[in-house]
Each structure stands twice: as C-alpha cells, then as structure tokens.
Design a protein that fits this description.
Blueprint: H1 15-18, H2 22-27, H3 30-48, H4 50-53, H5 88-124, H6 126-140, H7 144-154, H8 159-185, H9 189-196, H10 201-238, H11 249-256, H12 265-291, H13 298-308
Length: 319
Amino acid sequence: MTPEKSSVPDGAAPAHERTPRWWQLLGRDRAAAVGAVVLALVALVAVFGRLFIGDHARRQDLDASLRPPSLDHGWFGVLGTDVLGRSMLARMIEAAATTLSVAVPAVLCSLLIGSAVGLWAGYHGGRRESVAMRIADVILSFPSLLIAVVVLYVFSPSALNIVLILAVARIPVYLRTARAEAAELRSRLFVDAARTFGTPSHMIVHRHVLPIALPTLLTVATLDFCFVMLTESSLSFLGIGIQPPDVSWGLMVAQGRQYLQTAWWITVLPGLAIVLTTVSATVLAAWARIATDPAQRWRLTLRTKRRNAPAAVPPEMIS
C-alpha cells in the first residue's frame, strides 16, 4: 500500500492558500482577532451608545451616591454610580464617544497631511525634501505632551483645540515615514518606467508609491492612535483636557482618584477601558504589519498549516 500522490505540483500551493483574504489571516491570529473585536465593540458603543442611554450619563441622584457595581438597581447600575449618583455605565459609554471623537480626527488629520507632504518631498528630493525634514525636526524637538500642555494652558481647553494640537504635533511621524518610503521607491525600475512613459509626478506617487507605502503608514497610524488617546487622557487627568459637563475616560479617572479607597470602580473601570483599547490597538497594529508584508505573511499561516497537517505514517504501516 503506497500513499497516493497529490494532484497539486510540489512547488505550488492550493488555490485557497495562495492569496488568503485579510479576514482569513485575522482569524488565524487569535490575539489579533480578539483585539479587532474589542476595537469594533468600542467603536459601536461610541457611535450608537448615546442613542440608548439618553440623559442617564448626566442625571444626578444623591440618594444613589457611590453605589457599588450590582444588578439590583437595573442595567444602568451594573457598574455602580459615582459621587453624584450618576450611572457609571452611561458615563463610560458617553466618555467612549468623547475619547474617540478626539483621537480619531487627530490621527486622520496628521496621517493625511504628513503622508501627503512626506510622499511629495521624498519623491522629488532636493531642496523640497530638506525643507520638509527640517520642519519635521523642529516640531519633533518638542515633546507632544509638553506642547499640548503649554498651548492648552494659554488658550481655553476644548476638544477642538486638543484635536488641532495633537494633529500638528504628530504630523512629523507620518512625514518622516512617508518620506523614507518614497525616497526608497523613487529609484525602483517600475517608477523609472512610469517616468519614461511621461506619467506625471502626482500620478506616479498616487498609483505606484502610495499603495506600497500605505501598509506601513496605516500600521504607524494604529500605534499612534494609542499614543493620542493616552495623551488626551493625560491632559484630561491634569485638568486641561476635556472639561465638564463633557466627560472622557481620562477625566473620569481624574475625578475618581480621591475616592479610590472607598469607591474603586470610579477610577478602575475607565482606566481598564483605556488599557483594553490601547492594548487591542497595539496587538492589531502588530498583526497588520505582518499581514501587509509579503515577506512576513507566512508567519500567520505557519501555525495553521502545522495544525492541519496529517499525522506522519509509521514506517511499519507502509507495505
């Protein structure tokens, strides 16, 4: 009895394994899949949560002050109440919307502006590249959190000011990354061929350089989302970020720190939400970097192939 030969050539892989979809790759990495689910739930809560909580996030009830988490007082009391008797569940849902409304626009603005300038400077080189890099060096010479603290201390703290400050402070991160990618790709043969055929510079950058640089930029943006969200939480904790009656996770931590020994849930729960969101985004960024790199993508399929591989047949079973 001899084992039958496979109909697939030795050097070829089955069709369904040659180009796995992104959701297939995500399903093969359990940590990244859990991170994606957590981020999706946070996004859904931030977008649609306010439709279900009404005014419970700001409704005060001094008789229900500092109630511990319990199911005895309905769903809005499942996470307890704060010192003013407001529902912690409702406040965390509203804080999620506020936190993401600051972090997401700041990351998108810095990503779009920094990537555009970096690709333009890296592709053309020369004086344009030098000027862009010097501007980025000047901005990076000051810590982002320090710039935000100084500017918000001078001007009035608001969500719009926080978005603008963080967006400007994070532009050099994407500018330097995009410039490095464009400077490396501008000497490739396919770029030279497109230039030889008379393709305009902006079309070359859009069609040939951007698709290759985009995975790296998106990975940086995912990691930068964690930094921006932590920065906003830090500013709110210091009292120069989101101001009441608005609420964010960082502001909730700041308001509940004096009750940490008597009502731990006021500080621990929003802090846990910050940790889970940032860790999930970090894990997903690591997966995205591997999934978008053809040279590293095999790592995501190696464990599945080992799990699905048939067991070895002992020599004595072969006749």
